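ESCALATION

Customer reports they have been waiting on this structure for their group meeting. Please prioritize. Original submission:
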Amino acid sequence: CRWEVETLFRELKTQYELDEFDTSDPDVVKILLYAALLSLLVSRELLDLVTEQADDEIVFPPERWAATFRSHAQLILHELGEYL
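Update from on-call: job pushed to the front of the queue and completed.
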C-alpha cells in the first residue's frame, strides 16, 4: 500500500507538475491541487475503461498512461464533452 501511495505522488509530481506551482496564494494552490487530482481521477477512470476494452496482450502501465493522457488531455476531454 505504501508503494502505491509513493508512486501516486511521483505521478502527481511528474505528470501533473504538482511540485511546480508558481504561486504563494493559498487559494490558487488549492485550485491547482484540485485540478491535478481531478485530472488524475479522470485519467485513471479512462485507463480502467481502456484496459477493459483492450486485448489481453495490451498493458498500459499507469505512469505511461498518465504521460499519454497528459499529452492528449485537451483532445480527450473535448471528445468526451461531445459524447456526453
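Sent to customer with the following note: The chain has one domain: 2-83.
Escalation resolved.
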